[in-house]
Amino acid sequence: MKIYTGIDIVENSRIEKAYNRFKEKFLQKIYTEREIKYCFEKSNFIPCLSARFAAKEATIKAYYQLFRKNLKYKDIEIIGKKGEPAEILLHNDTYHTKNLNISISISHEKNYSVAIVIIYTA
After folding, report:
1. Which one of 2, 4, 17, 50 is separated from 101 by 20 to 30 angstroms, measured CA to CA?
2. Per-residue pLDDT tens for 50-77?
3. Can you tell me the distance from the alpha carbon of 6 to that of 71, in angstroms, rounded to the nearest whole number?
């Protein structure tokens, strides 16, 4: 088994500044419609957006180690389910990632959001 990892941390204020400056343009560049809907259902949506941004960055890092190719932000979708761990859905599956095992852990608090992604291959 081979293991590929990615980790990222982001200041929530950085995502808040980007959102306040670019609004829909920022959201549409980074997030899928389902991610936007999920985060905006929260009373404070910035930590939710920040955690997904960190998760996308962590996924890009782990994926690059395996395939030596960069993903785009919108190729990665972080699926949130209340009371359950988040999941990653990869779009534009050029490298047949259906056979990969991908684990993700995300967390956020007042100032920071963090994510780690682990890809396991046989």
Report:
1. 50
2. 999 999 999 999 999 998 999 999 999 9
3. 13
CB 118 within 8 A of CB 3: yes
Displacement of CA 29 from its chain's centroid (Å): 13
Q: How far is CA 66 from CA 71, 105, 119, in A?
A: 12, 19, 8
Check: CB of residue 45 under 8 Å from CB of residue 105.
no
Distance, in Å, from the CA atom of 5 to the CA atom of 100, rounded to the nearest integer, reads 13
- 78: nearest Cα among 90, 87, 65: 87
**Distance in angstroms (rounded) separating the CA atoms of residues 87 and 105:** 9
CA 82 to chain centre: 16
| CA distances from residue 2 to 48, 55, 122 in whole angstroms, order as listed | 30, 20, 6
Residue 39 pLDDT grade (very low, low, confident, very high; cuts 50, 70, 90): very high
